[in-house]
C-alpha cells in the first residue's frame, strides 16, 4: 500500500508544475482504490530510518557515478562504497542506481587504424629504428590514432620531427582515408622548413601505401619510409 501512497505523492508533486492539468489527490485515491484517511496518515508520518538511509546512499552513489565519469556500473560503485566504509549490498546499489536512472557508459570496441597495404613491399625502411636526428626537418614520422568523442570517432593524423619530437603537422577527420594523412603532410611542409629529400617514416597502413600518398610525398620532395610488418614501435 505504501507504494501506492508514494506514487500519489510523487504525482501530486509533479502536478504542481502543471496547474489545472494534473489529477487531484482525491481522483488518484479513487482510481487506485485507497482510502483518503490512510493516505493522509501515511503522508504525515516522518520518514523512516530506512528511507533516510536510502536517500543518503543515493546521494553518495550519484556523487561516485559522476566523479568516475559515468562509466562505473553497480558492481564498481558498490566496491567504492565498501572501500569508503559503507555497509551495503550490491543488489541495493543496483536498485538505487535504477531509481536514479544511472546507466554506465559502455566502452567502445577497439578501432584498428593500421591495415597493411598491398604495395608496401617496394618502399624501404630508411629509419631502421633510429628515431633521432641531428637537426630539424630531416627525419619525420607519422601515424594515425583515434579519439572517442560524444559525436563519434575522431581520427587524428600527425607528423612528428625526430629532432625534437615536435608535432609539426596534423589533420583531423571522421574517416581514415588517404587525404587524412596527406593533410598532415601538407601542414608540416607549409609551416616548417623541411630539407629536400627528408625522410617521412610511417607504418604500412593503406593510407601510407596508396598511390595518392606516394604522389604527395614526391610533390613535397620527401622520401617515403615504411616500418617492418608486425613491429608496433617502428613509428616512434
Helix and strand layout, with pairings?
Elements: H1 2-15, H2 25-32, H3 36-43, H4 49-67, H5 74-83, H6 90-99, E1 139-149, E2 152-161, E3 166-173, H7 178-191, E4 198-202, H8 206-209, H9 211-219, E5 222-226
Parallel strand pairs: 1-4, 4-5
Antiparallel strand pairs: 1-2, 2-3
Mind explaining what this structure looks like?
By secondary structure, the chain is α/β, with parallel strands linked by helices. It folds into 2 domains: 2-99, no CATH class; 108-236, 2-Layer Sandwich (Nucleotidyltransferase, domain 5). It is built from 9 helices and 5 strands. The protein has helices at 2-15, 25-32, 36-43, 49-67, 74-83, 90-99, 178-191, 206-209, 211-219, and strands at residues 139-149, 152-161, 166-173, 198-202, 222-226. Strand 1 and strand 2 form a beta hairpin. It starts with a helix and ends in a 10-residue tail after the last strand. Mean pLDDT is 82; it is low at 230-234. It comes from Mycolicibacterium gilvum (strain DSM 45189 / LMG 24558 / Spyr1) (Mycobacterium gilvum). Involved in the transposition of the insertion sequence.
Brief sketch in words of this structure:
The termini are far apart. The protein has two domains: 98 residues, no CATH class; 129 residues, Nucleotidyltransferase, domain 5, CATH 3.30.420.10. It has nine helices and five strands.
Find the CATH topology of the largest domain.
Nucleotidyltransferase, domain 5
Let me know the largest β-sheet: 5 strands, mixed
Q: Which range best describes the helical content: under 10%, 10-25%, 25-40%, 40-55%, 55-70% or over 70%?
A: 40-55%
Q: Look at the structure and give the mean pLDDT.
A: 82
Rg from alpha-carbon coordinates: 31 Å
By CATH reckoning, the class of the largest domain would read Alpha Beta
CATH superfamily of the largest domain: Ribonuclease H-like superfamily/Ribonuclease H
Work out the count of structural domains: 2
The count of helical stretches stands at 9
Shape: elongated
Amino acid at each position: 500500500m505504501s507504494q501506492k501512497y508514494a506514487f500519489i505523492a510523487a504525482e501530486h508533486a509533479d502536478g504542481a508544475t502543471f496547474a489545472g492539468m494534473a489529477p487531484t489527490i482525491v481522483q488518484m485515491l479513487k482510481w487506485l482504490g485507497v482510502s483518503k484517511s490512510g493516505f493522509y496518515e501515511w503522508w504525515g508520518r516522518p520518514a523512516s530510518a530506512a528511507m533516510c538511509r536510502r536517500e543518503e546512499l543515493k546521494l553518495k552513489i550519484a556523487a561516485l557515478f559522476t566523479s568516475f565519469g559515468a562509466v562505473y556500473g553497480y558492481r564498481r560503485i558498490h566496491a567504492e562504497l565498501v572501500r569508503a566504509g559503507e555497509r551495503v549490498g550490491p543488489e541495493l546499489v543496483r536498485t538505487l542506481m535504477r531509481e536514479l536512472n544511472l546507466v554506465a557508459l559502455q566502452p567502445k570496441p577497439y578501432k584498428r587504424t593500421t591495415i597493411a597495404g598491398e604495395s608496401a613491399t617496394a618502399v624501404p625502411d630508411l629509419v631502421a629504428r633510429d628515431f633521432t636526428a641531428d637537426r630539424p626537418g630531416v627525419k619525420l614520422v607519422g601515424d594515425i590514432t583515434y579519439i572517442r568523442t560524444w559525436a563519434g570517432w575522431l581520427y587524428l593524423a600527425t607528423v612528428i620531427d625526430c629532432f625534437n619530437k615536435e608535432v609539426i603537422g596534423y589533420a583531423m577527420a571522421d574517416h581514415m582515408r588517404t587525404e587524412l594523412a596527406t593533410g598532415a603532410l601538407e601542414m608540416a611542409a607549409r609551416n616548417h622548413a623541411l630539407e629536400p629529400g627528408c625522410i617521412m617514416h610511417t607504418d604500412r597502413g593503406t593510407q601510407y601505401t596508396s598511390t595518392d600518398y606516394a604522389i604527395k610525398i614526391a610533390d613535397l620532395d620527401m622520401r617515403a619510409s615504411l616500418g617492418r610488418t608486425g613491429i608496433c614501435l617502428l613509428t616512434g
